[in-house]
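Q: What would this chain look like folded?
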Amino acid sequence: MCSLQLIHSSRVGASPCSHPLKEAKMAKYINSGLISFIKGSIGDYSFNYWRGIPCIKRKPKRKRKFHLNPHHKKTAEALFMLQYYWKNMDLKKRSLWALYSKRYTKMKTRCKDGLCTHIGNKMAPYHAFISVNLLLISSGFKHIYTPPTGIPVKPPCPSTDLLDCQIHENKVEFYIWLPHSYHTNCIAQIWIRESYRYSYIAQIIKLSTSKTLVTISQVKTKVKKKMSLKKNVSANSGLQLIKLENMESCTLYIQMRTVADNGEFSIPSPIYKLQVKSTKLKRKTPKRILNFFRNYY
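A: My prediction, written as structure tokens:
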């Protein structure tokens, strides 16, 4: 063993009663006569050279901080649970998921074509099991162990009275319903996007053949300094949930699809482009336009 002698502590004001290496960030030391060179780490301490002087440091303990919102936390827990179920699944059920994944190998999907997350292209049985069950869990249904077998009867896409290129005031209201009945429970995922980069599920509505009112009064967006907002809305970094009545004007893209509790889903609806204007915010005329009319007249 090497006998070490502590001769300096880089931390000022360290208590003499406490251990010097616990209080100090770095300390010089003198090797014994048997060992003249030491480099590396032993336990929680590392030996190195600083400006040609041998020194000993305590290894930093770094703790990664994850800031997960409730939606991301729920998705992470569901993904961990599904991975555990797939690991303990027998070969018969895995073969059924392999047959299920082959249905969608010819489905050509691109992210820019729609707002909804796509299921298609070349999928392995594992990815089919994870994607379908995540879709069910996000829709409020329970996960399934076996996929639908036989000839699939897909649920119909929800019908709506929403029209493209409409102008709404303060909020968006429309009705949705099923064009015909389906043999299992169905819900509608209302996907919304304020810009082309980020889309999310705004609402999950239970579907039936009777009409159901959908109201969208707020949207997730990235607040910028140039946006016309109320004074109580701060321009912080990241996405914020802002009421539409607090925004002077914005363009929304809405898309919906039907999800059944048996794992089947409908083709996404067309994308509706809407404009929402606020009647509570007074639109100010720019100063350069006012100055132009004053000088002209």
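Confidence is low (pLDDT under 50) at residues 1-18, 231-235.
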